[in-house]
Design a protein that fits this description.
The chain is α/β, with parallel strands linked by helices. Helix content is 42%, strand content 17%. The protein has 22 helices and 25 strands. β10 and β11 form a beta hairpin.
């Protein structure tokens, strides 16, 4: 019996995976190698969005989490890796809208029910495709516990959390400025707004001081005497002149001496011919522009807060489509940038424009379509995050949650210290509908997670309607660890919560990780996971970020079919550091394909030289080195096992891979295999050399298995046929990790 010339990964990988799954090795309930008294190890899979195929970023988390899962399973720990998929609310609706656009359709021409049904079918089909892709990449997760964020039992948990937040006074509904995308017609949380530095203009506009209801004459405003000129108008600086029609005040800092005499007076809005007061507020920055700020509550958060404090009315100059309202007269229905130019031209023509200066500032854009965000006041549901953030910060400071990389811990503290209330309402169809109802008569909000109320408890009106908004997808996925285990098999929550580690990309530290810690502690009084491991972004060989526009993306499933899954997995880990970006290229994958070939050929050599020996032992206690090469390889193996174990325990997966690679290729293959060729010719050394060859190969396969599961399992199965030793387990994945 001998190994084929090469490992037929296209044929064998699927067979091997099916064998693992059929034997129940992924399920801790049927895991055969559990050692008594071992603490369970658990990971909740970051659920991939059920709206497309897996990409190279997914390949990273699959590889890292599968590595940890296989390692801890081999240590005899009850090991659970729970899989799932995310409905991904806004993300999926955007993807589906693009699909409809390609078909010449629009979501706005579908009823809510029709759109939801179409997206449900879309995600369910994608979910099945993703499962097959996860399996093809070797993910040894327990499919009997698979979850979806729109499962009825998950929704029930999400509703219970929402209700509890309300009862505890941590939830409120308010008309506040929110980040509004004019393309997607929904609000976005602060984290979904992409701020980019942009060069615009700061426009200096004269607001005439008003002495009556009539607009002052030009001669009265532009008197030549300096003292009178100073009193005839106040100049404000703004980047948004198109919103002046919704101005309700001019605010100055009470400590700013140059405006002290004007506090309490009125100015007239240019073009609008409407008087507004000059007010004092300490939030005005005297150093910005002229120190006088036009207050437009509907279109700026600071203006809103100032307006609320001073009980100013709210006027709207821009509608939900990003066009000017009928408040703006001749500029009605113009788009924002078009209106800005037109307004400035008229201000200049009428001598109200004093100056224009270039101005660089941060401008918010929708992270999906890149359109400029328009602040808009809408009634939304908000979570008071400060109390939740305080407990999350404390959990990390006291070591209940440990970040593998301290740099992310510092970022975590900074963000949570400065956190704002979280808008969890979304004006889309796809998601978990908010269980709130409103009285059309008195606008009273009612929360009922079980049924629609029949009448308003405040005014007894029967005119009750349900909130059409859905939850921000991060609100439901922020409950993922406890929701999946609470709705899983009996005692899962008790046994596996808190989970052992949360592994995900550093770019969703705030979107997801921080929110899981906040909501996990709030709901369960325990942290959701003990350790946070954040991997970096995937970059090409020139360390450029991968993107379709650059043409440097790698399809992990495509290259896996060409070079083998093991080669891709090893390439993703080899040379990587904790939290650092991951460099991948086809050349690197080819190099790991060559390593796979080396493993196969070395194993082929060993099998060829032992297949006729029925008296082999693989008991480490009976392995006795005779020659110096024997002693050296066994010493090197012991060191490699010790060092690689230390690396994996410390989440240093790259160095662990390099340690094992170095040992197998250069110390075992290049040196000992060459020495063994001579020793196998010596009758006195042959038996012992054969046993050392088998022992070192088996231990090497164990070390390599978490990184390269398919080829190592295939070699192990072939060794089994020859050795037939009771010490060998039925599968390599349930064999004991040597320490």
């Amino acid at each position: 019996m001998n190994l084929p010339k090469q490992f037929d990964f296209l044929k064998k990988e699927k067979e091997i995976y099916s064998n693992w799954e059929e034997n129940g090795y992924f399920n801790p309930d049927t895991q055969p190698n559990i050692k008594k008294g071992k603490k369970p190890f658990s990971i909740i899979m970051p659920p991939p969005n059920a709206n497309g195929s897996l990409h190279i970023g997914h390949a990273v988390f699959i590889t890292l989490e599968d590595l940890m899962t296989r390692y801890h399973r081999m240590k005899g720990e009850p090991t659970l890796w729970l899989p799932g998929a995310d409905h991904a609310g806004f993300e999926t609706q955007v993807v589906f809208e693009k699909k409809l656009e390609k078909e010449g359709k629009s979501r706005f021409k579908l009823t809510r029910k029709e759109l939801y049904k179409k997206m449900w079918d879309f995600t369910q089909n994608n979910k099945l495709v993703m499962q097959d892709q996860l399996k093809s990449f070797g993910a040894s997760c327990d499919w009997t516990r698979d979850k979806f964020t729109l499962d009825k039992d998950i929704i029930k948990i999400v509703y219970q959390t929402f209700e509890q937040l309300h009862k505890d006074g941590l939830l409120y509904r308010d008309d506040r400025p929110i980040n509004w995308c004019t393309k997607h017609q929904t609000s976005l949380s602060e984290l979904e707004v992409k701020y980019t530095e942009q060069e615009d203009h700061l426009y200096y506009i004269k607001y005439p001081l008003a002495t009556s209801n009539k607009l002052p004459t030009l001669s009265a405003r532009l008197t030549k005497r300096a003292d009178k000129q100073a009193k005839s108008y106040i100049t404000i600086a703004t980047t948004r002149p198109e919103t002046i029609f919704a101005d309700v005040a001019i605010a100055v800092n009470p400590k700013d001496k140059k405006y002290k005499q004007h506090i309490g007076q009125f100015v007239t809005i240019p073009l609008a011919n409407r008087k507004i007061p000059i007010i004092a507020d300490e939030n005005v920055d005297p150093a910005f522009g002229t120190g006088a700020l036009k207050i437009t509550p509907a279109h700026d958060l600071l203006d809103f807060e100032i307006g609320k404090k001073h009980k100013l009315k709210i006027l709207t100059a821009i509608d939900k489509y990003g066009k000017l309202t009928n408040l703006t007269g001749e500029f009605y229905k113009m788009k924002v940038l078009e209106a800005r130019e037109a307004v400035i031209k008229k201000l200049n023509d009428q001598k109200y424009l004093e100056d224009t200066k270039k101005h660089t500032h941060q401008v918010g854009h929708c992270y999906k379509c890149n359109r400029i965000i328009e602040p808009r006041i809408l009634p939304q549901w908000f979570i008071k995050t400060k109390p939740l953030a305080k407990k999350a910060i404390n959990a990390v400071k006291t070591g209940k949650v440990k970040f593998v990389s301290k740099k992310f811990e510092k970022i975590f503290f900074h963000w949570l210290t400065n956190i704002r209330d979280w808008n969890i309402s979304r004006q889309i169809v796809w998601g978990i509908q908010i269980p709130a109802y409103y009285c059309q008569k008195c606008s009273h909000a009612i929360i009922d997670i079980n049924k629609k109320p029949t009448k308003c408890p405040k005014c007894n009106s029967l005119e009750i309607i349900q909130d059409q908004d859905v939850f921000d997808t991060w609100f439901s996925s922020g409950q993922w660890p406890f929701a999946t285990l609470m709705t899983g098999k009996k005692d899962d929550f008790k046994k596996y919560y808190p989970t052992s580690v949360m592994e995900t990309g550093w770019d969703i530290l705030f979107f997801w990780v921080a929110r899981m810690i906040m909501l996990g502690i709030y709901k369960t009084s325990k942290v959701p996971f003990e350790t946070v491991y954040l991997h970096g972004l995937v970059r090409d060989k020139d360390r450029q970020k991968m993107s379709k526009s650059k043409g440097n993306t790698i399809d992990p499933l495509g290259v896996a079919k060409e070079y083998g899954t093991d080669a891709v997995r090893m390439a993703l880990i080899f040379g990587s550091g904790i939290g650092n970006d991951i460099v991948i290229s086809e050349e690197k994958i080819k190099a790991m394909r060559n390593f796979s070939t080396k493993i196969w050929n070395a194993s082929k050599f060993v099998i060829m030289n032992i297949e006729n020996n029925k008296q082999l032992t693989i008991n480490s206690k009976q392995i006795k080195p005779i020659t110096n090469p024997d002693k050296q390889i066994l010493t090197e193996l012991k060191t490699t096992i010790k060092e690689s174990t230390k690396h994996i325990d410390a989440y240093r997966f790259g160095p662990a891979a390099e340690e094992i690679y170095e040992f197998f290729w250069h110390k075992f293959c290049d040196k000992y295999l060459e020495e063994s060729k001579k020793q196998l010719q010596d009758p006195k050394l042959k038996q012992n050399t054969q046993e050392i060859l088998v022992y070192v190969l088996l231990e090497s396969l164990k070390l390599l298995h978490p990184f390269m599961p398919f080829i190592t399992e295939e070699i192990y199965q072939n060794l089994q046929k020859i050795i037939n030793n009771k010490q060998l387990t039925k599968s390599l994945m349930i064999s004991n990790w040597s320490i």
